[in-house]
Amino acid sequence: MTRRFVQRFLRSRLGNRAATKRSGALGALLFLLTALPALAQMRVISLPSRSPLVTLRIVFIAGSASDPQDKPGTAYLTAMMLGRAGTKDLTYRQVVDAMFPMASSVNVQVDKEMVTFSGATHTDNLEAYYKLLRAMLLDPGWRADDFQRVKDDAINFLRVNLRANNDEELGKEVLEQETFQGTPYQHYSAGTASSLQKITLDDVQQFYRMHYSQANLYLGIAGGYPQPFLERVKKDFRSLPEGGGFRPRENPLALIRQNRAVIVDKDTRSVAFSLGFPTLGMRSSPDYAALLVANSYLGQHRSSNGRLFDRMREKRGLNYGDYSYIEYFPRGMFQFEPSPNLARHFQTFQIWIRPVEPPTAKFALRLALYELDKLCREGIPEEGFEHTRDFLSKYVNILTSTKTAELGYAIDSLYYGIPNYNQYLKMHLEKLTRDDVNRAIKRYLRPDRLVIVAVSKNGEDLKKQLASDAVSPMTYNSPKPAEITEEDKVVEKFPLHLAAGEVRVEPVDQVFE
Amino acid sequence: MKEMLFKLFVAVSFAALLFGADAPRKVFPYAYTQEDLPNGLRVVTVPTDFPNIVATYIVVQTGSRNEVESGHTGFAHLFEHLMSRGTEKYPPEHYDAILKQIGASSNAFTTDDFTCYHTTFSKEDLETVLAMEADRFQTLKYAEPEFKTETLAVLGEYNKNSASPFLKLNEQIADTAFERHTYKHTTMGFLKDIQDMPNQYEYSLRFFDRYYRPEYTTIIVVGDVKPKAVRELVDKYWGAWKHGTYQPEIPREPVQDAPRTSHVDWPTPTLPILTISYKVPAYTDTAKDTAALEALSFLAFSPTSELYQKLVIQEQKVDQLSANNPFNVDPNLFGILARVKKPGDMDYVREQILSTVKTLRDTPVDAARLDAVRKHLRYQLALTMDNSDTIANILSRYVALRRSPDTIDKLYAQLAQLTPADIQAAATKYLIENGRTIVTLTGPGSAK
Q: Is B79 in contact with B64 (CB distance < 8 Å)?
């Protein structure tokens, strides 16, 4: 069943020939997906040290891809009923009161595949903290008043925090929804407002019984805990049902045949863009390091080193920044390093254009596509290759410089079936050649068949602009070097290949509703 | 290896002492050196046991507070941008290429009171980083066209922030609560000033000449380093930097003599937001005020407080409730914020908060709860210090106030001595009607 899902996914995205050609990557995927049910026991990752702190990351493969088809948001509400609600013996207030003097808490992260409960505490409080955490995850309270509160919070999160207050994250999530149409990845991990409303307490309890199993559990612990403590934790979590592992539903992915755009229409000052397409260039792929170099060169997150940042912000002052991604990276406006435990079997390549002034919106989009096209046509320059490879070889140390990140990366590595991330990446980077990177660019990236999402006011006006071939000349508040003005003459008419029928305007109040 | 194990053991024992039965002494558990160069530059070096990584945080005690001339708000923040525009020795491409080659994570941030430039990297690149930073702090050079382009990136930053109602709300709170002090504008600055920035090249040169001086600057180096080596490098690259002469005259805020209110109409649907702010004194580590107000913010408005439990958990009328006690160079605002689920509950929630504030003035808090807050704050600090970068980050915020990590221990010593009577005294003195500003924000169709 699982094998068919992956093959259909690949076939629908790449066509039959391509799927056969990429049999290496496909083999790795199948192994991971089919191997899980056989290992019906938890995986434990322990990183003991003499630190006075203890960090826990408890990951269940119980994310939104496992939602019942007609009830998106069930995984999310289930996770919140564990991490933001009372236990069988304690009300939520009692839990919060007990954690307060320790300054500890339980953070909850819900993604398509993984749900993560994480926290840290001082060794002084390890027993007391663990007692609470254990009860929250293994003996939840399932109280109706908690359920009403977490449900309200989830709906307000969608309608207010995401839809009303954060145009950039909204654009990114609409892009995810559009690129994964027809698959279990399609809906936002917190579901939709109307679906959340109809989910019942019985639904989440049933979801918990089905998916919170030993087979779905990755238990991570780091810091100054005593060994017998870890044994006790393992024993406690063995009380969960053994379970059968992660099985995604079978749904073919709708093929992106040509560029199409969605404009989310809302009253806002500027225009935020996100664009991209699905890829299989994941961590376990032999091409991962090559693709990582290509992406870092084009648009390293929140760094002034990326090509997009340099050409769009630094040279032209179009906006605050422009970046690209080969892995899902939510909350990028609030953090510099990615959160771990967002591991997925399918990823998207994305470009994020931060809000631009409306008159320059079409030019900014054209410039980003022009740069992507240039990378796809010309590949990475020799100097860019060397500098980016050197950067990543060292930057990986910063990515994993906290205990919680080290633990999170270790869990992801186990999930992807790769060795220690730092060593894995450094080993691959060392052997990497410029040709490898250029081959990966050809194989995984493309300047067409993109989904483009804009969050903008006057959506119909923007639609007209995007669907027209009219030039979008750029004017500046200061003289620009000839190199820029010459390039602008090409960029201002760079084809967007967007037919009017391929541009949809969606009122913001319908998004995730 | 032996040495490292020993150090770790010391750290563990020391941390245990912090929270044990013995009287706590210091909450900042690392030994550090603090030295001044003859030019007034200060260097704070904190060796830690976290291997290989070093974080430098360079604090310039210039923030939006220093923007004293009208029409020029937002310039401290603009410099956070301009500092990446290069020097003769390191043009921007060269500077970026070196940072890239050494795999550094580098950025900057600006607040009311200071601007901070931070870089995290591998220990072998310490000299490269200190040399490059010294060069841009002393010889920053940008031409007018590049200046104009960078001002557009600042406008882009304003634009990306403007999707959230909190930018507008903060602008309104500052503008309503202050008359003369520069805290009247946010760190981003007034939009009209940002839009005029491209025309202010000459002023920008003056701003740099005034504030980017050693007497305003402290270099914090945390991680796998030795203080002597750091000092030698700082002497070598930063020793020739010239002391400046400029001292801003920050306008004094007149005493507020009546409560103020104001309202923001937000154009798109959002939940209504209620903010209640009070004027409170400047940061102090020699009196109890800052510590008492900090404890009070947790006692009365954190998730364990009676009010939070009532409004958020039981009645479920509010989905966010929090309070923020400012740590600022000058008197600023103690802010309470509630996001209300239904517009019709705004009056009720306001009355509940005001009644809580009145109770704080009238009744001493429970001593056991005060103890829980003290523990919370100490453990919270310990939990965040789990790598060199966050240790340096925490230090930067205190160094911006007192130029020394010493102030952390002084503040926590004040906290340790607090009694319920101190909390009551702080509430009685500062959480008063005449110092109050209430600002509300509602979306379309909501009652104000």
A: no
